[in-house]
Design brief:
The longest helix has 19 residues. The chain has four domains: 160 residues, MoaB/Mog-like domain (Molybdenum Cofactor Biosythetic Enzyme, Chain A, 3-Layer(aba) Sandwich); 57 residues, Molybdopterin biosynthesis moea protein, domain 2; 83 residues, Molybdopterin biosynthesis moeA protein, domain 3, CATH 2.170.190.11; 70 residues, MoeA, C-terminal, domain IV (Beta-clip, Beta Barrel), CATH 2.40.340.10. It contains eight helices and 27 strands. Strands 8-5-7-6-10-9 form a six-stranded mixed β-sheet. The chain has a six-stranded mixed β-sheet with strand order 17-14-18-22-21-19, with helices on both faces. Strands 23-25-24-26-27 form a five-stranded mixed barrel. β24 and β25 form a beta hairpin. With 393 residues, it is an alpha/beta fold. α1 packs parallel to α7, α4 runs parallel beside α7 and α5 packs across α6. Helices cover 20% and strands 30% of the residues.
Amino acid sequence: MTGFEEAIKIVLKTARPLPPVRTRIEHAVGRVLLEDIRSGLDMPPFDKSAVDGYAVRAADLAKNRRLRCLGLIQAGRAFKGELRPGECVKIMTGAPVPAGADAVVMVEVTAESDGLVEFKEGIKKGANIARRGEDIKKGQLILKRGTVVSISHTAALAAAGRGRVRTGALPSVALINTGGEIVPPGARLGRNQIHNSNGPMLAAMLAADGINAAPVIARDDASALKAAIAKALKADIVLISGGVSMGDYDLVPGALKSLGVKAVFHKVRVRPGKPMFFGVKGRRLVFGIPGNPVANFLAYLAYIRPAIRKMAARPDCAPEFKTGSCAAAFNPRTMRRALVLSTVRAGTQYSLAGVSNNGSADILALARANGFTMVKEGGSVKKGEKAVFLTWL
């Protein structure tokens, strides 16, 4: 049986980055840059007004607080000519500062009448002007290769003149839920049926990672299951929930074998999620997760998201385990590595407390939790002791 940490390492070692792609910047959030980004221009590309007001010669206002207005400059337009002594031009934010002007007075301290503008105060040379290249210089390094693009990066990429960037590619994922008793949420339940909770949950987790995958329900029938998996094997990752244990209708391992999927490991020394299956077919990865919701959730955090990130060439692909202090004792009473549903509270240090539950099928307990606290095989953790945890805060 494979150890928990060993299983994570095997998945990360097996997953291989996909070929890079050119990605529109608005779709690049969460992806890793595979090139250095340098600006193709100065920003601002010209001296521009930082406020709505009047472009002036600062020296004029030291002598005279009333100037003749020559017109209006809108953003995207330019003023033809050059300001001479005693003249000003009304200017909007972002418009280029006209030749001869060396400051912009905010409109709030002015009054205009009959083509003349009265200024209530003087101004220093250079005031309220954003100088060419003061934010970004042409050729300046904006973002380094290996940066995971965030929302705040997109404006800088756009300003630098980039519409697309070279990034890691997100893998395609096929999602299968097995079971003769499950029906889609919202559908009418028949006798002895339940709604498919794992499918929407996994689809939502995939969506949070930028991947669209609609759950497909496969009956506990060998031929139907094999057909569903054969179709799914066109994707980079196949994710199967349920049917991987040792019951009469746990048909997934046999179907995978018949389709040429090579098992890398089957069973992990962890609770929840012992019957976890991981296999490969060429460069495709196949995950078979026991059907309980808590096991599904843990498997996604521990194995599947790391695999997705590795295939997308992200440097932060391994699951992030943190350390906190236990606000109560953890005694899971198992000889396997235990990942206990917990509430994680952030403060000067993380505080961990277990969530009362009825096992790995307890959906409400999962909804109340925001982390898993790790307890070693056959062990326990006392109140006040440190423990490692995994969270989705």
